Amino acid sequence: MEMIFQTWSWYVSGLIIGVVMLSLIYFGKTFGMSSNLRSLCSIAGLGKKVSFFDFDWKAQRWNLVVVIGAMLGGFVAVHYMSAPSNVSINPLTIEKLAEMGIDAPNGKLMPQALFGLEILESPKTILILLVGGLLIGFGSRYAGGCTSGHAIAGLSNLQIPSLKAVVGFFIGGLMMAHFLLPIILRE
Amino acid sequence: MKNILKYLIVGFIFGIVLTKSEAVSWYRIYEMFQFQSFHMYGIISVAILTGVIGIQLIKRKNIKDNNGEAIVIADKEKGSTRYWIGGILFGLGWALVGSCPGPIFILIGAGFWTVLIVLFGALLGTYLYGVLKNKLPH
């Protein structure tokens, strides 16, 4: 029982994620989380103005149900399955973060400095979250998928386009984590 | 109803495993990009390995889906530009806010309300792509 409260190992977690992806294939669907963003835009009525959102989102309702399930899962995991030992990252990483003014995890999933409610008084932090989201939304639709659709589902099906996208994810991610983030956070 | 339930359960398991493996954590993504832990690489590799084996089994044994129909997994469109540029833009955002689309929803469900700002940005980015789609190289 103790185990479920600890950080789940990478091999168990990876296996379950792989099985989640395969179950959706078995249900005749595909694994892809960013498609839901397009559905939400369509539900908001944007299809009247932009043809990209003029599609039958109702055929994608199953994926929105997956999202609702995932949100419930996140709720249960955070509120009933957590332990103070969680998110024990590399001490070197903690040191590096301290230099940029980011608080250590101490069991928290998210740094207070970027996601605490007090950031609502910091226009700069709000802008960071907004621009980050913008890049994720724009980039995933441009690339035709995100971590789930390309990295997991695409690479599992040995797709070369997905490999290009995933290498792109890492080029962008490494540039951000090593060069841009220190500048953004210190300014 | 049964139809909806199976997607809800799959999503629920997905939400729990991504949270308990801490793949939704900003810290884990930062640590991954700093190459200071194997954790995230292990998760992604095992997920892909499981997927490769599963998909090969489906293809070689002609396994049918739960409605008894043949499973056809569409190939991704050929091309390069969209994958490189879109991929890099996505990666920049991923490392900045430490979450990709799945975790954005999971974190909001878990009660991290400021992630709603990230979701709003992501919807805006998706909208912007829809507007600019025909002008972009693919």
Walk me through the topology:
The complex is a heterodimer of chains A (187) and B (138).
Chain A: H1 2-5, H2 10-26, H3 35-43, H4 61-80, H5 91-99, H6 112-115, H7 123-143, H8 147-156, H9 160-186
Helix pairs in contact in A: 8-9
Chain B: H1 2-20, H2 26-33, H3 39-60, H4 81-97, H5 101-109, H6 115-132
Helix pairs in contact in B: 5-6
Radius of gyration of chain A: 19 Å
Q: Which residue ranges of chain B are poorly predicted, with pLDDT under 50 across at least 5 consecutive positions?
A: none
Q: How many DSSP helices of chain A?
A: 9
Silhouette of chain B:
globular
Q: On the 0-100 scale, what is the average pLDDT of chain B? A: 96
Main sheet record of chain A: none
How does the helix and strand content of chain A classify structurally? mainly alpha
Please give the share of residues in helix of chain A.
55-70%
String of helices and strands of chain A: HHHHHHHHH
Q: If you average the pLDDT of chain A, what whole number results? A: 96
Keywords (chain A): Cell inner membrane, Cell membrane, Membrane, Transmembrane, Transmembrane helix, Transport
Pfam families (chain A): Sulf_transp
Subcellular location (chain A): Cell inner membrane
Family (chain A): Belongs to the TsuA/YedE (TC 9.B.102) family.
Structure description:
The complex is a heterodimer of chains A (187) and B (138). Chain A has 187 residues and is an all-alpha fold. Chain A has a domain at 1-82. Chain A is 65% helix and 0% strand. Chain A has helices spanning 2-5, 10-26, 35-43, 61-80, 91-99, 112-115, 123-143, 147-156, 160-186. Chain A starts with a helix and ends with a helix. In chain A, 48% of the residues are buried. The model of chain A has no long low-confidence stretch (mean pLDDT 96). Chain B is mainly α and 138 residues long. Chain B is globular and about 45 Å long. Chain B has one domain (1-36, 75-135). Chain B is 67% helix and 0% strand. Chain B is built from six helices and no strands. At the A-B interface, α2, α3, α4, α5 and α7 of A face α1, α2, α3, α4 and α5 of B.
